[in-house]
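Lecture notes, continued. The same structure-token format from the folding unit now serves as the input rather than the output. Read the line below as a description of shape only.
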């Protein structure tokens, strides 16, 4: 998942110193109106969180607590599986405290340490990891709704091994009445050969498949949208064509962007981008963007905000998906939550 930091201080200093199967703009899914009318159909809402890197965990969670009735689960980035099958627990005591007090369901992220495949290639290491993870789930009691597996930077040759690990993990969770989600980097016809994710197989063993539909452009690319609607719909349609049931799909929604200068990109949370330019330009998909100068350097900025994100939420509802998954808590603002209140009753 995405990890972005340090921008609140940077922006404050700056302010003081100075497609594939894509829809045309006319075919955008219709969000709810701004008159308070709520759309039909209830989407689930997964909210990701990287509390270990947050400078204000209590402040971030305070927003979530106010919206807890529409949040299906909070997914903090807590468990990291090492190549030997051991599990590093990075759970945050404040997040635990607030979740218990507010009774917010949890589905923590399970990532692969340093993007390694090793644990997948040894069944005994897989089993050791599952046993350790189940101990964490058992410790969490009723708040623990399950886990979300997020293994990235894998060799495509590990595809079957990843599915086997997901099946082993799902079996252990289901025996406890818990659920498994699997987060996948979205593929297309052009990239399917290099993808380590077997969509149909993972959809069979998991309870939800989370399409991380963001980072269309990023640090190493040219400036451009983080998640244009046409690009997002193309990746979603690919998953549906591969036979993933829509009722098992969560559509990823970003709350961040990037700024580029001199051919290099830097992370930029939504709140930081808005502080730099409250009235951005928008492309045909309503992705916000702008340029500015700072200390003699020209910067290009593209990001996601509540206006562009609401079209993704509307797309999820139009396609009959299970829900949406937001990356991540702490980057958004009140306007983003106001949009979610309209789009997710």
């Amino acid at each position: 998942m995405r990890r972005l930091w340090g921008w609140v201080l940077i922006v404050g200093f700056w302010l003081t110193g100075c497609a594939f199967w894509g829809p045309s703009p006319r075919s955008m899914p219709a969000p709810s109106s701004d008159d308070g009318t709520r759309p039909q159909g209830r989407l689930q809402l997964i909210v990701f969180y990287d509390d270990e890197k947050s400078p204000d965990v209590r402040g971030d969670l305070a927003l979530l607590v106010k919206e807890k009735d529409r949040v299906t689960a909070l997914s903090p980035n807590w468990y990291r599986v090492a190549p030997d099958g051991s599990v590093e627990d990075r759970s945050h005591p404040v997040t635990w405290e607030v979740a218990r007090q507010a009774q917010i369901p949890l589905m923590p992220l399970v990532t692969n340490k340093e993007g390694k495949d090793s644990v997948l290639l040894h069944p005994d290491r897989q089993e050791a990891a599952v046993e350790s993870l189940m101990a964490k789930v058992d410790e969490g009691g009723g708040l623990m709704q399950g886990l979300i597996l997020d293994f990235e930077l894998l060799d495509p040759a590990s595809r079957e091994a990843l599915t086997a690990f997901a099946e082993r993990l799902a079996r252990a969770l289901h025996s406890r009445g818990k659920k498994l989600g699997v987060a996948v980097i979205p593929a297309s016809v052009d990239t399917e050969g290099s993808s380590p994710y077997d969509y149909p197989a993972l959809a069979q063993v998991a309870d939800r498949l989370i399409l991380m539909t963001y980072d269309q452009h990023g640090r190493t690319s040219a400036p451009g949208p983080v998640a244009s609607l046409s690009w997002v719909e193309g990746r979603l349609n690919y998953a549906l064509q591969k036979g993933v049931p829509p009722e098992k799909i969560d559509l990823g929604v970003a709350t961040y962007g990037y700024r580029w200068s001199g051919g290099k990109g830097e992370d930029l949370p939504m709140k930081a981008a808005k502080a730099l330019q409250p009235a951005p330009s928008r492309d045909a998909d309503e992705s916000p963007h702008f340029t500015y100068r700072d200390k003699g350097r020209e910067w290009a900025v593209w990001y996601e905000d509540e206006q562009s994100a609401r079209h993704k939420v509307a797309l999820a509802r139009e396609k009959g998906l299970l829900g949406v998954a937001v990356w991540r808590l702490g980057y958004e603002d009140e306007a983003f939550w106001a949009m979610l209140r309209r789009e997710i009753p």
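Point for the exam: DSSP finds ten helices and 14 strands in the chain.
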